[in-house]
Amino acid sequence: MATRLSCLTKRSLAGRAAAHRAMARAALFSDHSLRVRYQRYQHHMQKARALDAKVAASTCSFAVLEVRS
pLDDT tens, 40-56? Predict the structure, then answer.
């Protein structure tokens, strides 16, 4: 049961990270000043990197559980 929940969480986090990368790309082409576009891009990429790190951390802990079983 916990494995299923873990997989669903990883997928939703990965999906959110992909959405933030898409928002970052969209920010580059928005109709705002260069400074605002760059700030928005950086904000969304920071969120995407944080979510990717959570996915990687949950993957590593899952692998450790598999080895111990």
Answer: 999 999 999 999 999 88
